[in-house]
Structure formats: structure tokens, C-alpha cells
């Protein structure tokens, strides 16, 4: 069960890149679209999506910015050398197959299947939405489970985070399918769910899970969990996953200088307690080893899709039931409500001219004495009168 998509928009990262390419600030874009700076920042981070008239205005603005930058880009591409540019680190070292920048931007799971020995012809491409989703899941889910474990230190929560992220991706598959980085879309959703502060209210959160068996792994995991969540996420994306600093800043919803400061503070915290990991390459190697030490298995893609559809149907039916209940209560109120105005009775008022209360007044002292005498006489009975003879 998927949701229909509106007119296509660039990915959140591409939105930010287009804005920065024209040296536009958030305030300038917000003024042109008619929203606040926080709204534009949420659009560029992927937290929310514009709708209605604002979506059309925002899309036209980005299209105009992209059209202005096509000519310089074409000139630069014509003069570029044939030497391929490689990123500083492979982004998908924790995934089930190697991942380069070409794989990251859209068809990574298809390329990974081809490198594994499958056909590179038409059969290598997804047949339908279900096949494409299953390939993306098989490609990205194993690595995301291990990454979520490093974020939370909980195996159950890591699997649940990846499952919920892919359920959301399947629900919004038309949007995810056209994204330049589907794996990054799901990764951002999994990170957001895994690091939600509401998990602290769950009863299972009160009982910590068993730590890793190796002492070095336990020490590194303790250092990671002692950091603030924003530092931990930045360190994992940059030194673990291998994203560039601007991409890390965009995914963590921060500016590039702020992301750099978080990264430096996180590295200092790690180097302070584990001096051997002061070198970034050593830190990347240890993060990879710690992620791979835990045998975490993601649920099957079929189960994820069916559970997501079942949850969507449940909430849809619940919303319909609540709507019907509200409509019924409104109809009952309209049926039982009075159809005409009934004046409220006036409050009570003092009435004058009423005669005073009549009747015997209170007994005096003489009256009370007589009453007591009569009562005593009644108890002994009246005196009998006898006639006398004269």
C-alpha cells in the first residue's frame, strides 16, 4: 500500500545544493515561497515535504535555479578530464556489497547484484515496485541494522528502527523510488526512529541489553553511548559510513561548520578515553569491526512490507472509525438539541405585602406552669365525686 506522489521535487540534499549554488540564504528562499526559515530548513533536511501551492512555488524556484546553473555545469563537464573522481572513503562498507558514488545515487542495489554475478541485462533491473523495494532492502538493511546498533547499543531497537524505516519507505515508495539516494533516505528515517527520546518511556528501555563480548568493543561502545546523540550521529556518518562533511551536515540538519565542530568534539571524546583511536582511519576500522562483530539479522522484506501494509490499514480504519464516531455524535446532538428558543426562568425576587405569620405565640412562664400541672393531674386521674346526704 503506497501513497500517490505529487509533482516531483529534487531530493532534500539537491534542494540545499541548488540554494547554496546561487548563494541564497534560508531567509531569501522563505520570503520567495512565503514560509518561515524553519520550514525551508525542514524541506532541505527531508523532515517534511511542501504541499499545495507552496510546493509549486518552491519547485518553480528550484527549477529556475537549476536552469541557470546548467550552462556552467555543461562547460565544466566538457573541460573535465577522463580520470574518475573517487570519494575519500567507500560509503557502503557496512552494507552487504561495496558501494561507490554511482551506486549511492539511485541504483546501488542493482549494481551490487550485477557485481555479485547476476545478469547485467534487462533482468538485472527491477521488474516492478515490489522487486525494486526488495532489492533495496536486501542491499541496505544489513548495514543499517549494524549502524543503528552503534547509535543505540540495543539490538532489538536497531532491528525495529530499520523495519520501521523500510515500512515508511514502502508507504511512500513513489517518492523514494525517484530519490537520487534511496539508501540515504531510508538511513535518515532509521536514524531518526532509533534516536527518538520517546524510547526512554518504554518498559524495555529500563533493562540494558548484554554488552559485546570483547572488552575493546565494550569500551568503544560505552564511549559512543556517552556522547550526545548529535555528536554520535555525526561521528557515525562521517567516520563510519563515510559521508562527506556537507552531506553529513545536511543529514543531521545542521550547518557545515556546526557539523565540523560536532565531529571534532566527538573525536576528542574518543581520543581522550581511547588514545589508540585518535587517528581517523583507525577509528573507522574499529567502528567497522564493532558493527560487524554483532550478528544482527534484519527481518525478511516480505514481512516488512506486509507488516507495514497491515499497520497502514489499521490506522486508516481507526481514523475512519473515529470520523464516523464524531459524525454520529454530531448527528445525535443535532437531533436532540431544541429547535426553538426557550427563555430561562427569571430568578426569584422578594414579594411585599404578605401578612405576618399568625397563630399561638410562645408560652409564657405561667402557661408552662399550668401545662405541667395539667400533665401531672392527668397521670393520677380525676378525683371521684361522691354524693353526701344532708
UniProtKB/TrEMBL annotation:
GO biological process: DNA-templated transcription initiation
PROSITE patterns, A to Z: HTH_CROC1
Gene3D superfamilies linked: 1.10.1740.10, lambda repressor-like DNA-binding domains, Winged helix-like DNA-binding domain superfamily/Winged helix DNA-binding domain
Skewed-composition ranges (Low complexity): 74-84
Alphabetized InterPro entries for the sequence: Cro/C1-type_HTH (IPR001387), Lambda_DNA-bd_dom_sf (IPR010982), RNA_pol_sigma-70-like (IPR039425), RNA_pol_sigma_r2 (IPR013325), RNA_pol_sigma_r3/r4-like (IPR013324), WH-like_DNA-bd_sf (IPR036388)
Keyword Nucleotide-binding: no
Region (Disordered), start-end ranges: 1-23, 74-106, 347-390
UniProt keyword list: DNA-binding, Sigma factor, Transcription, Transcription regulation
One Pfam family in the UniProt entry: HTH_3
GO molecular function terms attached to this record: DNA binding; sigma factor activity
Extent of Basic and acidic residues compositional bias: 365-390
Domain HTH cro/C1-type as annotated: residue spans: 16-50
Similarity comment text for this entry: Belongs to the sigma-70 factor family. ECF subfamily.
Official protein name in the record: Helix-turn-helix domain-containing protein
Originating species: Streptomyces sp. NBC_00119
Lineage: Bacteria, Bacillati, Actinomycetota, Actinomycetes, Kitasatosporales
Amino acid at each position: 500500500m503506497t501513497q500517490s506522489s505529487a509533482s516531483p521535487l529534487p531530493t532534500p540534499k539537491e534542494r540545499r545544493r541548488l540554494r547554496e549554488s546561487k548563494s541564497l540564504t534560508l531567509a531569501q528562499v522563505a520570503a520567495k515561497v512565503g514560509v518561515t526559515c524553519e520550514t525551508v530548513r525542514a524541506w532541505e533536511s527531508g523532515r517534511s515535504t511542501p504541499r499545495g501551492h507552496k510546493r509549486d512555488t518552491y519547485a518553480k524556484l528550484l527549477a529556475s535555479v537549476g536552469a541557470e546553473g546548467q550552462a556552467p555545469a555543461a562547460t565544466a563537464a566538457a573541460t573535465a578530464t577522463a580520470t574518475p573522481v573517487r570519494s575519500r572513503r567507500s560509503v557502503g562498507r557496512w552494507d552487504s556489497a561495496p558501494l561507490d558514488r554511482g551506486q549511492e545515487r539511485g541504483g546501488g542495489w542493482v549494481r551490487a547484484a550485477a557485481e555479485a554475478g547476476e545478469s547485467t541485462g534487462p533482468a538485472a533491473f527491477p521488474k516492478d515496485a515490489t522487486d525494486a523495494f526488495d532489492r533495496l532492502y536486501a542491499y541496505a538493511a544489513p548495514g543499517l541494522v549494524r549502524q543503528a546498533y552503534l547509535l543505540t547499543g540495543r539490538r532489538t531497537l536497531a532491528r525495529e528502527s530499520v523495519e520501521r524505516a523500510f515500512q515508511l519507505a514502502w508507504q511512500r515508495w513513489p517518492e523514494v523510488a525517484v530519490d537520487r539516494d534511496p539508501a540515504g533516505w531510508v538511513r535518515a528515517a532509521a536514524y531518526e526512529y532509533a534516536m527518538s527520546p520517546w524510547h526512554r518511556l518504554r518498559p524495555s528501555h529500563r533493562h540494558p541489553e548484554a554488552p559485546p563480548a570483547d572488552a575493546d568493543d565494550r569500551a568503544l561502545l560505552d564511549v559512543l553511548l556517552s556522547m550526545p546523540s548529535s555528536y554520535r550521529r555525526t561521528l557515525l556518518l562521517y567516520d563510519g559510513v563515510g559521508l562527506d562533511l556537507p552531506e553529513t551536515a545536511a543529514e543531521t540538519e545542521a550547518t557545515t561548520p556546526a557539523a565540523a565542530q560536532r565531529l571534532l568534539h566527538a573525536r576528542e571524546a574518543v581520543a581522550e578515553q581511547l588514545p589508540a583511536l585518535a587517528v581517523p582511519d583507525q577509528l573507522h576500522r574499529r567502528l567497522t569491526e564493532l558493527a560487524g562483530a554483532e550478528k544482527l539479522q534484519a527481518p525478511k522484506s516480505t514481512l516488512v512490507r506486509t507488516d507495514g501494509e497491515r499497520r497502514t490499514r489499521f490506522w486508516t480504519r481507526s481514523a475512519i472509525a473515529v470520523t464516523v464516531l464524531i459524525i454520529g455524535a454530531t448527528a445525535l446532538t443535532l437531533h436532540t438539541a431544541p429547535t426553538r428558543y426557550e427563555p430561562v426562568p427569571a430568578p426569584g425576587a422578594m414579594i411585599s405585602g404578605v401578612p405576618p405569620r399568625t397563630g399561638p405565640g410562645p408560652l409564657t412562664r405561667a402557661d408552662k406552669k399550668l401545662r405541667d400541672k395539667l400533665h401531672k393531674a392527668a397521670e393520677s386521674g380525676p378525683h371521684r365525686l361522691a354524693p353526701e346526704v344532708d
